[in-house]
Structure formats: structure tokens, C-alpha cells
UniProtKB/TrEMBL annotation:
Protein name: Fimbrillin-like
Taxonomy, superkingdom: Bacteria
Gene3D superfamilies named in the record: 2.60.40.2630, Fimbrillin-like
InterPro entries attached to this UniProt entry: Mfa-like_1, Mfa-like_1_N
A Pfam match: Mfa_like_1
Cited CDD domains: BF2867_like_N
Organism: Bacteroides stercorirosoris
Length: 281
């Protein structure tokens, strides 16, 4: 039999040399196969461990949940607001989380929308809008405003336009703040106060005007500022100087009229002008 060049010569017969060579090759192959198997098993174990970690990626090294969500309730100061007396179903507020004692946004939590579905003052975040406290337990402050606006807020400034009084809740403005919170006590109770003024009129029949003539009546107030910008982070209202005549929100029977106005400390007279439906006479 022809000798294998990779087998070293010895005193054994050539047949024995070949047998030994085959045995050596087999043992080597077996050892390598076992090594490959053990390596594959080790890799599988590593992937399994990694998978377990991903299932709980929000946990810290000590096993505590690191992502603690904000829990929100909200009341209205004296249970009054410019539009009406309490929350309504689906009312939404915007919330900012700030680094404590600053106006710097924390955890990218700016203008997150929270809604009270039942109008009971318990607010829940919209999908994907939840605010989470800092993992390291650092203190934060919160600012909130009502009504929430996605398109009307830019760089923390809320644009107001009071020229259309047909839907009062849409032009109401309230704010609230809470400071010095952290994840150890995630609940925040906002106490909202209104920043605008509500004008209400009760219209009654009088000399020359009957109840039926009040129906369809319009009421206007002159010299009213209608535009402003509210800086949410600094809680400051900047009202533009331009004035206009506003048409109040008047009931169909003409007996009640209302408007939401910017606070005014000036002493100038602002005439209120009723326009009776004389065509009904």
C-alpha cells in the first residue's frame, strides 16, 4: 500500500500506519465537531440571554423599573373657567416637563397631549405621548395649559385669536404648574386658573321690545383686542394692540349673550351694542 506523505515513518507495518493515520484523522474530526457544537451551544445561550434582556429593557441594574410614567389629575380653581364651570368629556391639556428650576425641556417632553375622557379631571396620555420621569430620579417641574393645541404652538408660544366667539371653549385659556417632582411620587395634581375674562349678559324684554323680538338678536362689543401670544414656559401673555368689534355668543332665544375677552385694565368705555331682530315686528 502506498504510504501517506503526512504520516511519519515508524517501525510499525505500513497497514498499521494507515490504520493509525485514519484513527488520528477521525479523532481530530470528532474533537473539532464537538468544539463546533459547544461553540454553537454557547452562542445560542448568549442570544437567549440577550432576548431575555430585551423583554425587560426598562429595568435598571438593581431590578427597579426605570420608566415611571406621569400620573395626572386636574382641577379648576374655584371650579370656574371662562367658558363654563367644569371639565367636559374629551377636554385636552398640553403638558411640558422641565428640569427643576429652569425652563429647559426634560426628556423631550414638550406639549404632550393628555385627555380627560369622561370630563372627571383624570387625564391620560394620548397614544405615544406618555411622559416618563428621569431614570436617575432627578427633580422636574411641570407646566400645563388648556386647551391643547398641536398646530397653534411654536417654540413654547401659544397663539390666541378671539375674533370668533361661536365656540367659547375653543378660545378659553387656562394654565397650571407643579414643581419639585420625581419618580418616587409620580402623581401630579394640577390646579388650573383661567387667564382670560368672561363677559355674560342677560337680555330681557323691555319697553318697546317683546320676548319674540329677542329671538335672533345679535350683540356686539367694540374696541376689543383679539390677538395675543401666550408664552407657556414663562407663563406670560402678550396681547397685540389692534382692536376690533366682537360679536358675542348669543343664545337662539336672545336671552343670554357671552364672550371671552382679554383682561383689560384700561378705563376707556367699550360700548355694547344690541341689534334686535326688528323684522319680526
Amino acid at each position: 500500500m502506498k504510504k501517506k506523505s503526512f504520516i511519519k515513518r515508524s517501525t510499525l507495518p505500513e497497514a498499521s500506519l494507515c490504520a493509525e493515520a485514519r484513527s488520528t484523522v477521525f479523532r481530530t474530526a470528532t474533537f473539532r465537531s464537538a468544539t463546533v457544537f459547544r461553540s454553537a451551544a454557547f452562542c445560542a445561550a448568549v442570544f437567549l440571554l440577550a432576548g431575555c434582556g430585551n423583554d425587560n429593557e426598562s429595568a435598571t441594574a438593581d431590578g427597579n423599573d426605570s420608566r415611571i410614567p406621569l400620573e395626572v389629575t386636574g382641577g379648576i380653581s374655584a371650579q370656574t373657567r371662562a367658558a363654563d364651570a367644569a371639565w367636559a368629556a374629551s377636554d385636552a391639556i398640553g403638558i411640558y416637563m422641565l428640569k427643576s428650576g429652569t425652563t429647559d425641556i426634560a426628556e423631550s417632553a414638550a406639549n404632550r397631549r393628555y385627555t380627560t375622557a369622561q370630563g372627571d379631571g383624570r387625564f391620560s396620555a394620548d397614544a405615544g405621548a406618555s411622559i416618563y420621569y428621569p431614570i436617575d430620579g432627578s427633580k422636574v417641574d411641570f407646566l400645563a395649559y388648556y386647551p391643547h393645541s398641536a398646530s397653534g404652538v411654536a417654540d413654547g408660544k401659544y397663539a390666541l385669536d378671539l375674533s370668533d366667539q361661536r365656540h367659547l371653549p375653543a378660545i378659553d385659556l387656562m394654565s397650571a404648574s407643579v414643581s419639585g417632582k420625581d419618580k418616587s411620587a409620580p402623581g401630579v395634581a394640577f390646579n388650573f386658573h383661567h387667564l382670560l375674562t368672561k363677559l355674560e349678559l342677560v337680555n330681557t324684554p323691555g319697553t318697546g321690545i317683546t320676548a319674540s323680538e329677542l329671538e335672533g338678536m345679535t350683540v356686539e362689543i367694540t374696541l376689543q383686542r383679539t390677538a395675543a401670544s401666550y408664552d407657556i414656559l414663562f407663563e406670560a401673555l402678550d396681547v397685540a394692540d389692534a382692536t376690533a368689534t366682537l360679536t358675542l355668543n348669543t343664545s337662539a332665544d336672545g336671552k343670554k349673550s357671552a364672550a371671552i375677552l382679554f383682561p383689560n385694565t384700561e378705563t376707556a368705555v367699550n360700548p355694547i351694542v344690541p341689534a334686535v331682530n326688528w323684522c319680526s315686528r
